Amino acid sequence: MTNLARNLTTAAKEHGGRPAVRLDDLVLTYDQLLDGARRVTSLLRSSGVGPGDRVGLVLPNVPAFTVLFYGALAAGAVVVPMNPLLKAREVRYYLEDSGASVVFAWEAMADEAAKAAGSVGIDCIPVEAAGFLELLAEHQPAQDRVRAELADHPGPVSLLGHRDTLPWTRSVIDEALRLFPPAWALSRRSHQADVIGGHEVPAGTLVIMSPWLLHRRADSWTDPLVFRPERFLDAGAGRSGYLPFGQGPRLCIGREFALGEMVVVLSRLLAEHRIGLPPGWSRPAAQALVAVHPRGGMPLVVTRSDGGRG
Fold first, then answer.
1. Which phi and psi (to 5°) does residue 116 adopt?
2. pLDDT per residue over 2-32, tens digit each?
3. Which terminus of the chain is less hemmed in, N or C, by CB atoms within 10 Å?
4. CA-to-CA distance for 255 and 278, rounded, in angstroms?
């Protein structure tokens, strides 16, 4: 019996650049879908999932479901889809009845699935909208576009003026700083009484702002959890709700140097190398210390563009 995952491989060979999955403005091509499915397969195999094992999926109708579905099939596993609105006892019933080895759950519904998974002694892997789609759909295309833009840039890359000379590269950096601002919280003390968001703020009040939360507000950003660099190609994008380096008179003095440094590093690194993810990679949790760090570090694979290991 032919595994359905083979159909995706065939479709990617014939229609690689054509849309395979579409949800609102998000589009995954057949190539991107296949690449994502292969990463899921690698993750499952490294976790000990093999042919005949059951993999639970507790997700709504989102592109991630399709990626996980084909990734599980390619590992030889049997998919056990579940309604994301099920309660823990109901999810537990499906897990016990199917003998599932692992379950993936959409972040907004992951609590119930995690309780059920813990009660039967298996792992529950939360599927996070931003990180998951960024990892499986958008990172490599965005990286390839940065590489192409840098290759067309005449002469060495300078520290200044990237908004006009390297708009896509700068947009990728801006979007990365939106999702992962270095400072998760900023504080200011009010000099005089004011009203903020309908709340009275007396003079001398310590006000704490979180770029991490501001950058994820749905009323300021379309699909705030999705990595989408093109949002910064528009003039003035994000001015009202974007402050990775602070804002106002106390704006970080090293802002322009830091932005220029990132562009220069990217230009040197991507000129001859490709950045990838190791087998079994999963997004590390954000750890809020003085700055935001990936908990446990974030290993990456650097390969030379000519195929050698960097």
1. -65, -45
2. 578 888 889 989 998 888 888 765 677 888 8
3. N
4. 32
